[in-house]
Design goal:
This protein folds into two domains: 114 residues, Rossmann fold (3-Layer(aba) Sandwich); 103 residues, Rossmann fold (3-Layer(aba) Sandwich), CATH 3.40.50.1400. 47% of the residues lie in helices and 16% in strands. The protein is built from eight helices and eight strands, in the order E-H-E-H-E-H-E-H-E-H-E-H-E-H-E-H. Strands 2-1-3-4 form a four-stranded parallel β-sheet, with helices on both faces. Strands 6-5-7-8 form a four-stranded parallel β-sheet, with helices on both faces. Helix 4 crosses helix 5 and helix 4 runs antiparallel to helix 8. The two termini are 12 Å apart. InterPro entries: CbiX-like, Sirohydro_Cobaltochel/CbiX.
Length: 228
């Protein structure tokens, strides 16, 4: 069975390396090779990997923090184009309580205190389903840390992170931006330039992210084997 981690794709080498590092961590956990594919910017694409292994079942895990166009449209289109008849596509990584635990760890690492105001900063989307997912994550994080978390966006969507930070400044508390991004890059740079007192690191290769991806693969493999 082929295991494929599917990411967006980026021209930033740091982002490409991070996906490779995540795949390597998951491969060690599962003791199986995990391949990497990208839906945009660079290859190989999911269709290319699947077409090269039509004789073996495949499981694709979308490395996205919310559902959206790439998860609901792009990846299924790649599966169709490949002609592969035995592909399981799991749900996106988020929303998931495991990611909330990673966010809390990143907050603690940054020096966050319970009295601080917190912005959950995502890349941004115009997809309503993805927006619901992001607001769900913000609500779960709010419940976990015991104070309201304001969602905001580095690109598409309102409010922008800088505007959310400025609005929270009026409360007279420190403002902490919780990065809801997978990797370093242009969007993380925007978060650091948004005027907050603290900005957490991206979720990146936190062990909780790798464990979540491994669990997605493992459950899909068990389900596929049970059906076979």
């Amino acid at each position: 069975m082929n295991l494929v981690l599917v990411a967006h794709g980026t021209r930033k080498q740091r982002g490409v390396s991070l996906i490779g590092d995540l795949a390597a961590q998951v491969s060690l956990t599962l003791d199986r090779p995990v391949h990497v594919a990208f839906v945009d910017v660079l290859g190989p694409t999911p269709a290319e990997l699947l077409s090269a292994a039509l004789d073996r079942p495949a499981v694709l895990v979308p490395a996205f923090l919310a559902r959206g166009y790439h998860v609901t449209t792009d990846i299924p289109a790649h599966v169709d184009v490949s002609g592969h008849a035995d592909v399981t596509v799991t749900q996106a990584l988020g929303p998931d309580p495991a990611l909330v635990r990673v966010l809390v760890d990143r907050l603690i690492e940054s020096g966050w205190c319970p009295e601080d105001s917190v912005v959950l900063a995502a890349a941004g989307t115009s997809d309503r389903t993805a927006l619901r997912d992001l607001h769900t994550t913000a609500a779960w994080l709010s419940a976990t840390i015991g104070s309201r978390v304001e969602p905001a966006f580095a690109a598409t969507g309102r409010p922008r992170v800088a505007d959310a930070v400025a609005a929270l400044r009026t409360r007279g508390r420190r403002v902490v931006v919780a990065s809801y991004l997978l990797s370093e890059g242009m969007f993380q740079d925007r978060l650091r330039a948004a005027g907050a007192d603290l900005v957490t690191d991206p979720l990146g290769t936190h062990p909780g992210v790798a464990r979540l991806i491994a669990a997605r693969f493992a459950r899909a493999r068990v389900a596929a084997q049970a059906q076979g």
